[in-house]
């Protein structure tokens, strides 16, 4: 049940990011909710599987930058999730540049934190 809630929270946060951040667009058909739901699923799986590996491998540079490199890891994870969603399912989101992905990662983090606060772990 925990993964389904995390997936739903991530999908809602991704929908808010698509709505707020310029440079993030939905691609692959008229079913916007399907694209956001699939992107949320892939982003949740990517956060669970790939993100810990990236955090471990980038630990020295994260320590040198006092944790600021963690933001770059979030951007990379969003790019990976967007490319997997587009290549496997043919729908998803298109990210126009680094700063769009940066702002999207910030929006997704804030919305997820707020939702987790109200829903609980």
Report on this structure:
The structure is a single chain. The protein has one domain (23-119). Helices cover 78% and strands 7% of the residues. The chain has five helices and two strands; from the N terminus they run αβαααβα. Strands 1-2 form a two-stranded antiparallel sheet. The protein is globular, with a radius of gyration of 14 Å. It starts with a helix and ends with a helix.
Shape label: globular
Strand ordering within the main sheet: 1-2
Approximate helicity band: over 70%
Oligomer: single chain
Mean pLDDT: 90
The largest sheet is:
2 strands, antiparallel
Q: Write down the secondary-structure element order.
A: HEHHHEH
Give a count of the beta strands, DSSP E runs of length 2 or more.
Answer: 2
Class by helix and strand content? mainly alpha
N-to-C span: 11 Å
What's the structural domain tally?
Answer: 1
Q: Helix count, per DSSP?
A: 5
Low-confidence stretches: none
Rg from Cα: 14 Å
Task: Give a concise summary.
The chain is mainly α.
Key phrases:
two-stranded antiparallel ribbon; single chain; globular
Ordered list of secondary-structure elements with their pairings:
Blueprint: H1 2-20, E1 24-27, H2 32-57, H3 59-64, H4 69-89, E2 92-95, H5 98-119
Antiparallel strand pairs: 1-2
